[in-house]
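Researcher: Hi, I'm a grad student and pretty new to this. My advisor asked me to get structures for two proteins we've been looking at. I'm not sure of the right format, so I'll just paste the first sequence and hope you can take it from there.
Model: That works fine. Here's the first sequence with its structure tokens right after it:
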Amino acid sequence: MSGHNKWSSIKHKKGAADAKRGQVFTRLVKEIILAAKTGGGDPDMNPRLRTAINTAKENNMPKDNIERAIKRGTGEIEGAAYEEIVYEGYGHNGVGIVVEVMTDNKKRSVSELRHTFSKFGGNLAETGSVAWNFEQKGFFNVPSAGLDEDEFMLKALEAGAEDIELNDDNFDIYTSPADFHTVISNLEKEGYPIHNAELIRIPKNAISVDDNTAEKLMRLIESLEDLDDVQKVYANFEVSDEVIEKLSQA
């Protein structure tokens, strides 16, 4: 899972410096709306909604915004009808890129994605040409402060986790998509705080790239992430720790 950790390091360090609060809220609102639409507005009965609400609270989203998004999802308030779509493409050196989109206008989303890929040296690809190389997993953190490593790892495995890694000040927990919310609920019952819960895509095979190519790929990926309809972007490349540090300070 180390490839995901490296990718997270870049995104986390850069995000601390240049994350756009309004854009984060927009993405979280969309997730809450769709979660409420597909599973109902009661977070106790809808694990996806409960996770979305917890993430929104972690990002200091006002309570009114959360409640309004839930009502839009359940139809109590009128609003745009969003759908989830996964697009695939290629960047420099044949690096595969998966883009998760939530949109109310598919034509607009495709046009913006095609333009961005082309502008930064990539291209959209046919469905199925890239996604096969990514494995979907549940992922979340538990702060490691004050916890015994062996004891916590045993608890996490008993809760249904597939893999646990101690990474800086957190335990990174990975689950199957089907067990994601169950594992979270089991650890919450044990009193462990859950952070950064999300479904992610981890590359099965990653392409090693040099500094120059890594910088080009990061410009493409960051431009894709800046698009309003884009929720998440994944790419199957890996770089050295030195390049990660350089990119994080850029």
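Researcher: Oh nice, that was easy. Here's the second one.
Model: And its structure:
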Amino acid sequence: MGSDAVGGAGALPLVTTEFFPCDVLGARPKNDLGTMEHPIFSLATRPDRRVLSYTHNGAEIEVIPSVKGRATIHDKDILIYCISQLMAAVNAGRAISRRLTLTAHDLLTATNRDTSGDAYTRLREAFERLAGTRITTNLATGGIETTSGFGLIESWEIVRRTRGGRMVSVAVTLSEWLFRAVLSKSVLTLSRDYFSIRKPLERRLYELARKHCGRQREWRVSVDTLHKKSGSAAPRRVFRAALRRSIAEDALPDYRLEEEAGDLIRVTRRRAAGAGQGPVVSDEARDALKARAAGWDVYALEAEWRAWWEDSGRPRLGNADRAFLAWADKRVSRG
């Protein structure tokens, strides 16, 4: 599972039993490969109390919700935020722990949510669904395949509240399964626009596109397989109609969906960030980097380099390929 991951086979991250503070500003959003590949999270907007049983290519998953309902794809923002913070710390050489402390306001802001009183109430409900949703699976993380049962988060608690009742600081303990994904760097970088996607199905479509197009120019998938992998509970005809609306709106970050003959969906990468703006990296340069950075997600590195280029004031590059490879070599050497 880790062949498309961000990170390589360098030194293992430093691990501590103390709480890890989520204090990395502007950490790029990152998602674990397991939940990108398989439909763990509900796409429903009302409490989803159905038990999900899913098998695909040897993967077996059973997801049992609590009375609060199954964790939703919007609840997943909390996990993405935690994973992003941990990976930023790993890349900076800091010690990490699966026990985290985070500031509720920072989490809401980073995931493009409002900070009203209702938002804090919804955040607490999301923690309850994440802790209450139980998973039994044989999915491997960090190269270890075991059949086990666990919650998406092991525990959570409000550390401090304001006098008005809003949570200020929250302590979260991630599952061992999810933390192994971080330790093995079995994660992918997401577009910063991910949190602007409001429709649950479109979020899921973006995840699948990012997972399967990360190392290739296009991905073809049957409507039946996409229906299954999306986790949509809608009948096939309703799913197809929603899929066609998404294709017509063409609003997914980084990817374009097209309907093809044979009941297929073709997913392609858009051109360089900004629809053609900015430096263009050639396929030859990507291939060269793949050869000397085995195990790294070349497209994630390219996205990170573009972000660095933007943050650096968009300097003029005499040779974009050479500049990208020089930057990538330094990035990979840091691990």
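Researcher: Is there anything I should tell my advisor about the second?
Model: You could mention this: The chain has three domains: 2-189, 197-269, 283-334.
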